[in-house]
């Protein structure tokens, strides 16, 4: 069987990445340049700063990915890039570099939905992907639940009606004077809680259940609590906030899986690196159910997932033209 | 020497291919959709010049200042072409490329300006000292109020204004220089651009590579400006 080698590029937000994957599964290299330091003083991603940084690093990163894999541009069968959703100016950097490679090397260009790629990440260096499954995507920009039916066939079941979960972690972290991005700081602080008392209410607890999420109320509750309790215990607040934030994910995700009769659940995105989330999802799993969460290095934005997913489009000969565009948001 | 020249710093695209025996060039208003249009036009121009891209020896890239995203499209493309083909890059400020028209006379003052919003333009002021040469810089490329550029214009010679910045601020320009020529239709001349690029190469202009070629933005992001103001730091 011929080995199919793909280069993936990712630049949708604040990480530039170049990854090389063989046959959609074996990761040969996965290079990521994080911009966290550039955005830390703003406590959020500044789109223009992100775009400038992507441009500066994308070519050296491609070189580094090729070097690590021991390959050259001539070994590539296709080149793929995230083109949706994301920051327009940032997406364009990866896509434009990919178009140039496609044009010069005369190999197919494949554009990829970043969200679908995240939900493909657990299948890299692992068992072959098998459909259908429930996909929960949790990151700084997204909190959404999908019914994954096949490659390119994902049905949105519900998403956040306001803040994404990662955004809530960032805002709470900022308000408590912790660092950016907030997730790792809150996760670490919560582990120091002793009393583990429930301070914040269950989110969207109405009986009229659906698959939506909401985090702005929880964020406001934390801020109000901190303001009203100047001597508050930071670890206890971090713990209770995190518990509430994760509880709704578990309730919604398992409800969706059981409603649809699905037993495989994939949790992906940057917040899937949270240690408490990983523990609670494993705990909530019935014996016939399987929760699949990628290793930490494949939770955050990376390009191995772009190259890996694109392999399936390559096999279906679903290629893009060189006038392919980028899209900030996607529907459904 | 086979040269590819690209600039996408404003709503127009400049794409030129030069070989020792053939030539192709387009100057097209595509709007700000360069990411979508650039390769179709590069391909067209390469076909006109009857050369595959793999035979290009040098890429000349307009690096701004201009539309941030627009500039990045050309720079990303140029860097990646350079990386793939292992060829050098030559960086040129975009307003200088736009000053290379065929309709100028000796001692003309050439004001190139692109609307930069916030009451300013990305632009520069040049003077053409000799036909067939690169205009000399009177006020270097940057982020200016139109008046800052006009402050450097002399009354002794003709003022020719190129770019949508002078169209937007036409009343200001004409109030101060009633004889100024503001010509929306004036376009850079591909053959003059090529001659000037060859001239720079022969004069030993230093090349960039795919890691060192960067846009010249001339302006910080809004967030950086705001953060600087909070800290009492002036914008760069």
Keyword list:
heterodimer, A: 332 residues, alpha/beta, Nucleotidyltransferase, domain 5, five-stranded mixed sheet, 40% helix, B: alpha/beta, 10 strands
Please give a structural write-up:
The complex is a heterodimer of chains A (332) and B (236). Chain A is an alpha/beta fold. Chain A is 40% helix and 19% strand. Chain A contains ten helices and ten strands. Chain A has helices spanning 36-39, 47-69, 88-105, 114-120, 165-175, 182-190, 216-228, 234-260, 275-284, 304-315, and strands at residues 5-10, 15-22, 26-34, 78-84, 109-113, 133-138, 143-150, 153-159, 264-268, 290-292. Chain A starts with a strand and ends in a 17-residue tail after the last helix. Helices cover 33% and strands 24% of the residues of chain B. In chain B, strand 4 (58-62), helix 2 (68-85) and strand 5 form a beta-alpha-beta unit. Chain B has eight helices and ten strands. Chain B is of the alpha/beta class and 236 residues long. At the A-B interface, helix 2 and helix 3 of A face helix 1, helix 2 and helix 8 of B.
Oligomer: heterodimer
Mind summarizing the main beta sheet of chain B? Answer: 5 strands, mixed
SSE string of chain A: EEEHHEHEHEEEHHHHEHEH
CATH architecture descriptor text of the largest domain in chain B: 2-Layer Sandwich
CATH topology of the largest domain in chain B: Nucleotidyltransferase, domain 5
Shape of chain A: globular
Can you list the strand order of the major beta sheet of chain B? 3-2-1-4-5
**SSE-based structural type of chain A:** alpha/beta
CATH superfamily of the largest domain in chain B: ATPase, nucleotide binding domain
Number of helices of chain B: 8
In short:
Chain A is of the alpha/beta class and 332 residues long. Helices cover 40% and strands 19% of the residues of chain A. Chain A has a 5-stranded mixed sheet, with helices on both faces. Chain A has a 5-stranded mixed sheet with strand order 8-7-6-9-10, with helices on both faces.
């Amino acid at each position: 069987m011929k080995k199919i080698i793909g280069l993936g590029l990712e630049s949708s937000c604040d990480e530039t990445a170049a990854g090389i994957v063989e046959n959609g599964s074996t990761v040969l290299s996965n290079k990521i340049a994080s911009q966290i330091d550039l955005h830390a003083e703003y406590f959020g991603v500044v789109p223009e700063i992100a775009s400038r940084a992507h441009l500066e690093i994308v070519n050296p990163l491609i070189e580094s990915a090729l070097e690590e894999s021991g390959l050259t541009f001539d070994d590539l069968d296709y080149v793929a890039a995230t083109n949706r959703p994301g920051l327009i100016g940032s997406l364009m950097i990866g896509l434009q570099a990919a178009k140039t490679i496609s044009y010069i090397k005369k190999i197919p260009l494949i554009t990829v939905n970043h969200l679908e790629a995240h939900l493909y990440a657990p299948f890299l260096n692992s068992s072959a992907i098998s459909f259908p499954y429930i996909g929960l995507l949790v990151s700084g920009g997204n909190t959404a639940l999908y019914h994954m039916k096949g490659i390119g066939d994902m049905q949105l079941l519900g998403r956040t009606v306001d803040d994404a979960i990662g955004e809530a972690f960032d805002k709470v972290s900022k308000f408590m004077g912790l660092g950016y991005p907030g997730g790792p700081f809150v996760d670490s602080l919560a582990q120091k809680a002793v009393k583990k008392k429930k301070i914040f209410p269950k989110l969207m607890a109405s009986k009229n259940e659906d698959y939506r999420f909401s985090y702005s109320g929880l964020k406001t509750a934390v801020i109000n609590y901190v303001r009203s309790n100047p001597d508050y215990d930071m670890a206890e607040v971090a713990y209770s906030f995190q518990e509430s934030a994760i509880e709704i994910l578990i309730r919604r995700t398992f409800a969706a899986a059981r409603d649809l009769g699905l037993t495989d659940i994939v949790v992906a995105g940057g917040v899937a690196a949270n240690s408490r989330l990983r523990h609670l999802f494993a705990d909530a799993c019935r014996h016939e159910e399987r929760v699949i969460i990628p290793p930490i290095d494949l939770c955050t934005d990376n390009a191995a997932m772009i190259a890996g997913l694109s392999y399936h489009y390559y096999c279906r000969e679903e290629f893009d033209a060189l006038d392919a565009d980028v899209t900030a948001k996607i529907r459904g | 020497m086979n040269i590819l020249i690209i600039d996408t710093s404003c709503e127009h695209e400049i794409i030129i291919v030069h070989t020792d025996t053939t030539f192709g060039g387009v100057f097209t208003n595509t709007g700000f959709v360069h990411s979508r249009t650039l390769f179709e036009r590069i391909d067209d121009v390469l076909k006109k010049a009857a050369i595959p891209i793999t035979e290009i020896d040098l890429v000349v890239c307009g690096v701004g200042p201009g539309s941030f995203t627009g500039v990045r499209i050309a720079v990303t493309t140029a860097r990646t072409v350079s990386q793939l083909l292992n060829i050098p890059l030559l960086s040129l400020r975009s307003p200088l490329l736009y000053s290379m028209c065929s309709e100028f006379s000796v001692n003309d003052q050439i004001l190139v300006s692109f609307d930069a919003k916030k009451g300013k333009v990305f632009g520069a002021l040049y003077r053409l000292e000799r036909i067939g040469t690169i205009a000399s810089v009177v006020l270097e490329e940057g982020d200016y109020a139109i008046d800052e550029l006009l402050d450097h214009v002399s009354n002794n010679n003709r003022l020719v204004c190129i770019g949508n910045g002078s169209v937007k601020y036409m009343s200001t320009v004409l109030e101060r220089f009633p004889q100024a020529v503001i010509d929306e239709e004036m376009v850079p001349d591909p053959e003059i651009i090529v001659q000037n690029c060859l001239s720079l190469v022969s004069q030993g202009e230093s090349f960039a590579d795919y890691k060192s070629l960067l846009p010249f933005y001339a302006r910080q992001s809004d967030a950086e400006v705001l953060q600087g103001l909070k800290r009492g730091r002036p914008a760069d």
